[in-house]
Design a protein that fits this description.
The complex is a heterodimer of chains A (113) and B (113).
Chain A: E1 5-7, E2 10-13, E3 19-24, E4 31-37, E5 43-50, E6 53-57, E7 65-68, E8 75-79, E9 88-95, E10 103-104, E11 108-112
Chain B: E1 4-6, E2 11-14, E3 19-25, E4 32-38, E5 45-50, E6 54-58, E7 61-66, E8 71-76, E9 85-94, E10 99-103, E11 107-112
Parallel strand pairs in B: 2-11
Antiparallel strand pairs in B: 1-3, 3-8, 4-5, 4-9, 6-7, 7-8, 9-10, 9-11
The chains are: A mainly beta (113), B mainly beta (113).
Chain lengths: 113, 113
Amino acid sequence: EPEVTQTPSHQVTQMGQEVILRCVPISNHLYFYWYRQILGQKVEFLVSFYNNEISEKSEIFDDQFSVERPDGSNFTLKIRSTKLEDSAMYFCASSSERDNEQFFGPGTRLTVL
Amino acid sequence: QKEVEQNSGPLSVPEGAIASLNCTYSDRVSQSFFWYRQYSGKSPELIMSIYSNGDKEDGRFTAQLNKASQYVSLLIRDSQPSDSATYLCAVSHSGAGSYQLTFGKGTKLSVIP
């Protein structure tokens, strides 16, 4: 069964460094999302992406964040200058239609020291 | 502000019993409703989606939606120890071009053998 994949599974970085989290959505899906979950807290929406542009973004998704679909398969989230409070699980999700079921990848655990 | 409320639990049920999980939401124009299961340290796994008032059954799971009461529930019949997890209620909201999910904090379910 097709699934969303994410790399790396765990990323440790120093405060102020740039990180890139990678995702490969399900191949026939058109809508892509990033969510994050701080330990012990709820899953929070960051950004949605369709037709090579951002559809929607939350207040969390400030100028330090960017997304890109560099080729036909990958979908990336970049954090330019990481802060301690960026430490969280980051989940990529994809869906085939705009209001259809979203399927989540296994996540990347980001630890900022 | 769009809110999704769940009883955090823990909810303990004996093996073979029915587990009942509840969720309320604040935004009357919410379109679609989803239940995800999340094991500790893992990503959300989609269990059920429901889009219209009434019941929807899938195996041991039944989702119920009442838009007038802004209420959605999940029943798990013949509960198994493997059902022990946190169950997340998610509601989609129409944005500029996507349907971001707003999650509740989740209800932790423990099925006692």
